[in-house]
Specification:
heterotrimer, A mainly alpha, B alpha/beta, C mainly alpha, A: MetI-like fold, 2 domains, 17 helices, C: mainly alpha, lipoprotein (chain B), Bact_solute-bd_prot1 (chain B), signal (chain B), TAT_signal (chain B), SBP (chain B)
Chain lengths: 344, 558, 315
């Protein structure tokens, strides 16, 4: 639990790190809140402002997320929203089928295939895609000329605002069998290439598209974290004789660590969600064998057929796995001395 | 790292684009529906024969305008002469509407006009209604429809395209929409002469849940998938039209010049099905046919595998445009740009593409070749359903509202050459269209306003008319008539059938498998495996269910 | 000592060109040539990988159908310029109103979302406060369990929000992801600062307003941007909850305009003008979607200057 993304110096940073060790560290007690032996009433009086502040968001979430989430009971039904005049009432009239929807999902080999594709894609993206925004942020942060920096940043954000339809269109026009590269090769007497319909490299293609579209956008949070690093720290480190690389190692990276850990934990929890729209768009290009992931599977087999119970069951499975993953990842983050998403 | 992305769900627009031929032309493999008897919506089955006779409207042919080419072999009627604007006929002699308010929800492709535009106002005035159009994005329409029908507050009138009749929508239709039988069955339809002229085949399709619930948009039953070729390029290069599948392949290899960015054809799977005589795929009920006393499904036939194998050969030979392999972009654009010389698409492209190209290239010419049989002889073609888009009225609508809606449908169903037709299709003279060389031509305003609304809420029997390119209408109708001569109707032609819930999704994956096979990602043997799985998982039970339906109801075909 | 070092601020005076490097602090060593070259190369490559496709997109949006057909797709080298695609986009009935709708929804929505999220993030930023863990779990769980379309629609309808702009704001007002990022930055603020304020008698409202928020300008800018971009580019809620076409935001209108070229086959009664390529329309929509970003991003970037906010208490 590094309280601070702003270690004050190398020496102090060290003590900050030590706070992560369990036990009532002095500094933590000062600002963190002791949960120890204070009575509930006292705690309430002390923290009521904080609770009050969370209320608007909590209320919105209760109304617009939790109430409709209750609709997921249809996972145990053969839900037909049109049985009654109103879809809510129909929930009470639809027949209960127990775990039949779940059974249907687990018995479908296409489901397991989609899960496998999902995880392969997730790991590819974690290894090839996740670090890139960090590197880009460091690169941009090291540029001192303000105009160069501004221009570089502005350019890198742009692809985020291309819709997936357009990204895929542009990739098809460049890398497709009749694309710019293939035609150039043919003009010079070579064979054309078609990178868009090859199931073998499809997962790399998807990752590359993702990097192109969103890596530049992904640097924003890291840049914000970097911007909070005081120049004092660099100066102090330089005085201590740290060179360029050691400053990056001992000042810059520690500043980014909590953010990296947070995003990593959230990303792991989201492992079962990989580029729904992107993959749906390219499903026909390579076939479901290479492209079907969990979300597209649910779309084709549940939502498109209005098999609401089936879709809800798949959603529950996905939610439980995601929650399990995020809790595990958070635990790992704690063990590595990071705050992660929450701390017990 | 896009925090709000979870709230903006993915684009179904792209989904539609990617399956354009499949979803739109074929009706997206709808699990079409209706039911035997009950009103409660969950019943499966169909209504035909005597039961249907009781509720179907009486057919009274329209005599207002005589088409230049009469319908034959199931073709549309053709109007090949410009409308004589000075001698417009009248098919609705007196205003039938009584001024009810009607909210109409309809899919719309493009950017809809404001509700108070000149065209809508003129239509309201002429019909005697006050319509508020709720034009909804056509490509997310199925989702919106699903949600709105689940609420207790639905619009008075709802348009539902056949390809949106998926999953549980048929049961929603039976639960939420009114029986129009009391207003239209038998001779009652004669109050609405233009509706009485709608063919019985189309009305038969409007029987949902044992009741006449919809106003249909009639269509020709001849296959709508035409194999188009670039007549101008064929002439320039001296190609002759191939007459057999083998000839086609040989020609395609010769005509493909990838270096010059020219490929012989686009995806021809649908044409391959027609060449080989595969049962029509546009509606699941049409997949079945009675042969030697046993119901056979299209996926079990040898013709089906032959068609896939021939298409696979085209892909393997590299004569298919690579973007077609990737299912990206638009086939008709590749065709008009000269990147592919043959493509198959809806017959309407004949006019659409020609009209569009002629504004730039006066010598652009395309044709549709006659579908040949597997040995080059006559083909066997199978009929598609004779109606594809339906308009329903809410159960909560008042009697007066229903009557006023029927007045609207009657007005919109006016035939070519009437003043009602001119207003419905071209809008207000001087505002929405002007006369150019004696032909009505839409203004920019007209293009934006007279577009979509009133297109599906009532239509006359299938017809083709292009006053600006009359020869195309003639060619289209003649093609339909030649192909119609080879067209047979399968056992469940013309019926709206609701399959039992547990089997509705059984055959959903076959289309994907077809595409995998023709593109070389899967083998023909995978299809044989899938068919045998299908039989075990319920295909054989479904066969028995259909057989019983056939024995109980009899077939409308022959 | 509270050190606020805003070194590059000197550049705003404009004397030394902003293209030039600001004076290097004494402690920083001169960069090596190889290092500079490497950085330059990496940046140039990254920029080219983005600019080349962007160039093609812009050029294609300005070409006639003839040129696009001749190129067989996206155009690399322009041949003449025509604005026919943009004209088509701007003459649609709703295009005048839709940008205002989008702007309004984005402004109001972003302000509302920020207020709610900042409060919530601060409220949860004190580890060990009452209910802190439960509330956090309550938020976290929503990231993994979604509701189906139909229950959500029925709820929004039951609340009477259909056909109101609130339906575009309230259901998507809170992003748990954004709250977590805000919270993680708030927790990074030096505890000593907060404690000393508390000793001076400041309550939580004042601490949030006078200490936490000023010190978090960078992350506030980032999260505002996230929300704004989210509202600006959202279209699904509008397509489901609004039936009145005059209320549609820009994104929906744009999608519909692209679709004009794509109505299902068989319904294709409308002819496009032969000069206009559907590809050009698509690309023009793309360019128009990028415009606000290009305008907006300099404002956000100002907040990412190194050392802009420090506020370390020493000693």
């Amino acid at each position: 639990m590094s309280h601070s993304t702003v270690p004050r110096s190398r020496a102090e940073a060290k003590t900050t790190d030590q706070q992560t060790a369990p036990g009532p560290a002095k500094k933590r007690a000062a600002s963190g809140r002791r949960t120890g032996k204070i009575s509930f009433r006292l705690r309430f009086r002390r923290d009521r402002t904080l609770i009050l502040m969370t209320l608007p968001a909590i209320a919105l979430i209760l109304v617009f997320t939790y109430i409709p989430v209750l609709g997921n009971v249809v996972a145990f039904q053969d839900y037909d929203p049109y049985l009654s005049d109103n879809g809510f009432v129909a929930m009470f009239e639809s027949p209960w089928v127990g775990f039949e929807n779940f059974q249907r999902i687990f018995e479908d080999s296409a489901f397991w295939h989609a899960v496998q594709n999902t995880f392969v894609l997730f790991f590819l993206q974690l290894v090839l895609y996740f670090p890139i925004p960090i590197l880009l942020a460091l690169l941009i942060n090291s540029v001192v000329r303000p105009r160069v920096r501004a221009v570089a940043q502005a350019i890198m954000y742009l692809p985020h605002f291309f819709s997936w339809v357009l990204v895929v269109t542009v990739f098809q026009q460049i890398f497709g069998g009749a694309g710019i590269i293939a035609q150039t090769l043919r003009q010079h007497g070579h064979k054309g290439i078609d990178l868009m319909t090859d199931p073998g490299i499809f997962k790399f293609l998807v990752t590359a598209e993702g990097v192109w579209k969103d890596a530049g956008w992904g640097i924003i949070v890291f840049l914000a974290a970097l911007s909070s690093v005081s120049n004092d720290l660099y100066e102090a480190a330089a005085m201590d004789g740290a060179g360029r690389w050691r400053r990056m190692w001992h000042v810059t990276l520690p500043a980014l660590r909590p953010v990296i850990a947070l995003l990593l934990v959230l990303r792991v929890g989201d492992a079962l969600t990989v580029g729904f729209e992107q993959l749906l768009l390219q499903r026909d290009s390579v076939g479901p064998g290479a492209s079907e992931v969990l979300d597209t599977y649910v779309w084709w087999n549940g939502i498109r057929n209005q098999d609401f119970g089936y879709a809800a069951a798949a959603g529950l499975i996905k939610g439980i796995v995601g929650l399990g993953l995020v809790l595990t990842a958070n635990k790992v983050a704690h063990l590595m001395g990071e705050q992660g998403v929450y701390k017990k | 790292m896009t925090p709000n992305s979870a709230t903006s769900a993915p684009s179904r627009r792209s989904f539609l684009a990617s399956t354009a031929v499949a979803a739109a032309v074929a009706g997206g493999m709808p699990l079409l529906a209706a039911c035997g008897g009950g009103n409660d919506g969950s019943k499966d089955g169909t209504t035909s024969g005597k039961d249907a006779q009781k509720i179907l409207p009486t057919f009274v042919a329209s005599s207002v305008v005589t088409p230049d080419i009469a319908s034959k072999n199931g073709s549309a009627a053709g109007f090949t002469q410009a409308i004589d604007l000075d001698a417009l006929k009248t098919s609705v002699p007196k205003k039938l509407g009584s001024g009810s308010d009607l909210k109409i929800m309809s899919p719309f492709w493009g950017s809809p006009p404001a509700n108070d535009n000149a065209y809508y106002t003129a239509m309201n005035e002429a019909i005697g209604v006050k319509v508020t159009w709720q034009n909804q994005d056509g490509n997310t329409y199925d989702e919106k429809l699903g949600a709105i029908l689940a609420s207790s507050d639905i619009p008075d009138v709802v348009v539902v395209p056949g390809w949106n009749l998926n999953g549980k929508i048929p049961s929603a239709i039976n639960a939420k929409f009114a029986d129009l039988g009391p207003y239209l069955s038998g001779d009652k339809v004669k109050d609405y002469p233009n509706l009485a002229a709608v063919p019985t085949d189309a009305w038969q399709r409007s029987i949902f849940g044992g009741q006449l619930r919809a106003i249909p948009m009639p269509a020709s039953y001849v296959t709508n998938i035409a194999p188009f070729y670039r007549k101008d390029i064929f002439a320039k290069k001296g190609y002759t039209l191939p007459k057999t599948p083998d000839e086609f392949l040989a020609w395609a290899k010769e005509a493909t010049d990838a270096k010059a960015k020219v490929w012989a054809c686009d995806d021809l799977k649908w044409t391959a099905f027609n060449i080989c005589g595969v049962l029509n795929g546009s509606d699941k009920a049409l997949w079945w046919d009675l042969r030697d006393g046993k119901l056979v499904n299209r996926i079990e036939t040898d013709e089906y595998l032959e068609a896939l194998e021939w298409t696979r050969k085209l892909y393997a030979a590299g004569v298919v445009h690579p973007d077609a392999k990737a299912v990206k972009g638009d086939a008709s654009n590749r065709f008009t740009a000269g990147q592919s010389l043959v493509f198959n698409g809806d017959l309407s492209y004949w006019y659409g593409s020609t009209a569009e190209q002629r504004t730039q290239k006066a010598d652009f010419e395309m044709g549709a070749f006659d579908i040949f049989g597997p040995d080059g002889g006559d083909p066997t073609l199978w009929a598609t359903q004779p109606a594809g888009i339906f308009t329903f009225v809410s159960k909560k609508a008042s009697k007066q509202q229903i009557k006023d809606f029927l007045a609207l449908a009657d007005y919109c169903a006016a035939p070519y050459g009437t003043k009602e037709y001119m207003l419905t299709v071209y809008g207000v003279e001087g505002t929405d269209y002007t006369l150019k060389n004696g032909l009505p031509t839409k203004t920019t305003k007209g293009t934006n306003e007279v577009n979509g609304a009133y297109d599906y809420t009532g239509d006359p029997a299938a017809y083709l008319a292009h006053p600006d390119l009359p020869e195309i209408a003639k060619l289209q109708v003649e093609w339909q008539q030649r192909m119609g001569a080879f067209t047979k109707k399968s056992s469940f032609y013309g019926l709206t059938i609701t399959e039992p819930n547990r089997w509705t999704n059984l055959a959903n994956d076959f289309e994907q498998l077809e595409d995998d096979i023709v593109r070389g990602r899967k083998k023909i043997s995978d299809m044989q495996q899938a068919v045998s799985d299908w039989k075990k998982k319920g295909g054989d039970d479904l066969r028995a269910w259909y057989k019983k339906l056939l024995d109980d109801n009899g077939s409308t075909a022959k | 000592m509270t050190a606020v070092i805003d070194k590059p601020a000197a550049d705003f005076s404009g004397k030394p060109s902003r293209w030039a490097a600001p004076p290097r602090p004494a402690w920083e060593e001169e960069p090596s040539r190889a290092g500079l070259a490497g950085k330059g190369l990496a940046l140039t490559l990254a920029a080219l990988a983005i600019l080349f496709p962007l160039w093609i997109v812009i050029v294609t949006s300005l070409q006639s159908r003839k040129t696009i057909d001749a190129a067989g797709g996206l155009v690399v080298i322009p041949r003449g310029i025509t604005f026919v695609a943009y004209k088509e986009l701007l003459t649609g009935g709703q295009v005048q109103r839709a940008p205002m709708v989008s702007l309004g929804v984005t402004l109001v929505g972003t302000l509302f979302s920020m207020a709610v999220s900042v409060l919530c993030a601060y409220g949860l930023s004190r580890i060990g406060s009452l209910g802190h863990r439960w509330l956090l779990m309550l938020l976290l769980a929503t990231m993994f369990f979604g509701a189906g379309l139909i229950p959500t629609y029925l709820l929004v309808q039951a609340l009477g929000l259909t056909d109101t702009y609130l339906a575009l704001i309230l259901p998507s007002a809170v992003s748990v992801f954004n709250i977590l990022v805000l919270r993680s930055f708030f927790m990074g603020i030096s505890p000593e600062l907060i404690d000393s304020a508390r000793i001076d008698g400041a309550g939580d409202w004042r601490i949030l307003w006078t200490i936490v928020m000023p010190l978090s300008r960078a992350v506030l800018a980032v999260i505002s941007l996230f929300y704004a971009v989210g509202y600006w580019s959202a279209w699904f809620n509008a397509s489901i909850y609004l039936t009145d076409q005059d209320m549609m935001p820009l994104q929906n209108v744009m999608i519909q305009l692209v679709q004009k070229q794509e109505r299902p086959v068989g319904l294709a009664t409308q002819i496009n003008t032969g000069q206009l390529s559907p590809l050009a329309i698509q690309m023009a929509v793309m360019v128009m979607a990028l415009l606000p970003v290009a305008i907006l991003s300099p404002f956000v970037q100002r907040h990412f200057k190194k050392g802009m906010l420090t506020g370390a208490v020493k000693g």
